[in-house]
Amino acid sequence: MRHRHVWLTRLLLVGCIIAAAPAPGAEELTGGPSPEVKMEIQYAEALQKLGMADYAEMVIDRLSKKHPEAKPFIKVLKMQSMISRGKFEAVLEAIAKEANQNGQDAWAMRLSLADGYYAWGKYPQAEEIYKSFFKAFPKPTPGLNDFYINSAYKYAQMQLLLGKEEGAIAAYENVLKAKVAKHIKRQVMSETAELMLKVVQQKPEKERKALFEKINKLTDDILWVQDIWFGKAIVIKAHMLALKGDLDGAAKLIEDYKGSLKQIDDILREQDLENLSPMAQCRYLLGEMMWKEAQKLDPAKDRAAIIDLLAGKKKASGKRAPGALQHFLNVFIGYPSTKWAPDAGEFAEKVEEKLKAPPFNAKISTKVTKEQMDKVRRYQFQGARALFNQNQFANAVDAYLKVLNRFPEGETSVNALGELARCYVETEDDLMVDTTVRYMAERFGGEHKMQNKAGDQVLRAGGSYGDRGKEERKTAVYEVYFDNFPKHPMAAALLYQSATRAYTEGEYPKALPLYQRIVKTYSGSPSYLSALKQITYCHLKMEDAKSELITLKAYSDALAKERHPGHEYIRSLYRMANGYQQLGDKYLPSAIKRYSELVKLIEAKNPKYAPEAGDEEKNSDVLQGCLFFKAVCYARLKQPESKVKAYQVAAIKTFQSLVTSHPKSRYAPAALSQVGTLWTILEKPDEAQKALKQLQADYPGTPEAENALFMLGKSLLELGMRNRAVKVFREMFSSGGKYSNTQILTAGNELLKAEEYDISLQAFERILSATEERAFVEKAMMGKGQVMVAREEYGKAVEVLQGLLDKYPKSGMTVEASLQLSRSYGELAKHEADGDKRLDLFNKAVLAMTTARQYDKSSGFRARSDVVVAQLVLLKAQAEAEFGSAEKATDYRGEAITILQGLMMLGDASDEAARPHIEDAFGACIPLLLEAGHFQAVVDDADSYIETFPSGRYLSDVRRARSKARTKLAVSGIEVTKEADESTESEEPIEETSEAAEPKAAPAGGTGENQ
Q1: Is 241 within 8 Å of 208 (Cβ atoms)?
Q2: Based on the domain organization, do 377 and 364 belong to the same domain?
Q3: What is the DSSP letter of 320?
Q4: Residue 476 is part of a domain; what is its CATH number?
């Protein structure tokens, strides 16, 4: 894993660089940059750090032109640029090109490369360079001094990172060989002594003496000046004495220097730097030594000695000297900002527990005030938060856990728990994130006075996942929030936001319960009405008409209670009326009633229901829709038969009322078209003609006007008056150019969809005889071919479809034409007795299918073509059964089953394009399995179908097949387990009251979703 870049300005540290060294062949290295060059180099390096390599190159080029003497430094800068990109091979090649491999340029480049290796985590390569450098230059010369210091210190840090403490000690000692500034030297000496102290504890007794002597020498030298390092030296010396077993000597040393330590402590406190005070470490060290000694003793035998160590020895005055407990408490309370304070607090608790337990049974009074504890709490959390803010998340986790164990309550603790959760997010520990947020939810959620603060922290943890694009994890954390912080001020808004995101992405089943939770829990929230409205749209999208209408009723009732519901109330009633219309003929009277009531409400112009300024036309648009659909409902009424004509007249009057009162309505052309149709039904051709003429005169260019006869014919078909419809279409197709080719072609395709094949064929024939224009001929040939296939005139279908593909080899209809052609060849082959001719026809069918697959590789078409191929194989089976081998027929049926089951098992039923074809595969395969006697497969596939397509097109057939298969299995002695879903269950009926249920609305002025 790559570390943060380490950029070394080693060449800038030297006044005179690298003089003669003892290594064989090493030349004298001298020279240093001028202040101006230093500044330019620092500027270039800063640009490199910021990732602005191009700008850095500009500075380097300027430096090269203006200061040619800076060539060695420029080389290093260029190398750093390459190193930052990880181009180590290029750097090695550049170093190899240096004429003098022991010269200044070569070593500068090598050491920069070592820094780069270090930054990229390539420690062995970096270490090799450092070692070779210190082998070449074991001691610094005056010219080498600063360069030597920099390299030695860097090497020490790398050794520490790698856990090579003795190597780090040697590197520190190399630093001390150089001429170092006094304050830096004291720091290095202190760090060296402290590291030696750590190493010596890992050594056996006999190997400690040499290191003890070095530690003693370093600390003695440090003690000449009273500063921070003076205090550190006392601590190190005391610790060394304790390691030697001289606990009293360690305590005496600290006591002897107590005055000096107190003086340093006071100065640091005055400067708010108590966290650097050596007094805290001294006290902590004494407490730790005493605790460790006490742990070695047997409470039964050494009770008094343990008390002396932990509570302090009694003086002549009767008072006790400070023991481990006093030392730990002093650090914990008196120095809360130091790094020893958290551990001191833990040790203080352990000491108290030990002293209070048998055989000591001590009564302890610590006399810690609330103000002192608050200060400790504040500093402890600050330390953990500092690590968090520095992105040291793993270290912050340890710090937060320590402080939270001591201070689990309060606002600060809640904030810390939130930051702890985010640390776990950063360290990718999802389990601990869940543990932490659930703890916050259970501890501070619900009615807790801190629930708002805790809810904020849970949301931030979820937001951290969101920032990383981990939406599933964010959703999981938000679920904890929604479940446990229902009274949080953001809960309703965030629920609505989450629901709306799911709705926008088309995940309606996911959005619905979220909206429902808002309605159930937050009836007073600003999101309540919006959520209720969106529930109606979820039901609409999920095609749950009953639930949609029930929710629309609740929504309109809630709107009615508002002071000014405006147009939204009108629109909700309009959707309800349209919903009843969509339910079927049984609910038409209810729809008519609601349309009528809504018309009256709008015409009353109650200010309560007026639209917002600028939207005045919205209510008018709904009014026009009410009139139009009310008339449509009248026209659809069929019972009682004695009133049908009266209903039709009522429809005409309502349509005419709409056209008269709102001549510019978007519904007006359709209304006149419907009037013409109704007058035709009532056998009043003059009135019908009058309506159509008005349509063409007042609304020229509208689809209704341009397709008046077509719309009339289509309406007659929908009303079941086929003979009259045929008459109208014939008039249209023989009108001698009155209707355009586009209109005729449109009529033909619509009639084809309506399975009116004879009439649609007339339209296609009319096009083919009237024009040679490809745009029309191509589509007319396709339509004619489809008619022939539908009429099972496969020979004619082949002639037309093959002609289409031959005439237009790159037709946009190639896929559909090839599919239909494949089916036609297959059907012809099925009835062909001659084996050779039959084979030829089947081969042509396969070729046509192959062509289709080459052009369309979509998932939907692939699924569809699998079904068609299976059907083609079944045709082969039928042909073999009639003209060839029964054995081959069985083989072909098996092949068809295999193709269909491949689609059933491997197809993605959640793919909207593929889903209907996968269902077709089930519908075709299950009967084949039943016929072949694969009864268990029938049961298994039927169960799978019912689970995947609970309202499927083949549901009844599949259930019957499953029942037959189970009977066969039962007869054969095989036990069959019945599923919960049995065919005896019926779908829940829609209530038959006037307030029944509700389906899809015909919205006025848009759907209104999320508006």
Answers
A1: no
A2: no
A3: B
A4: 1.25.40.10
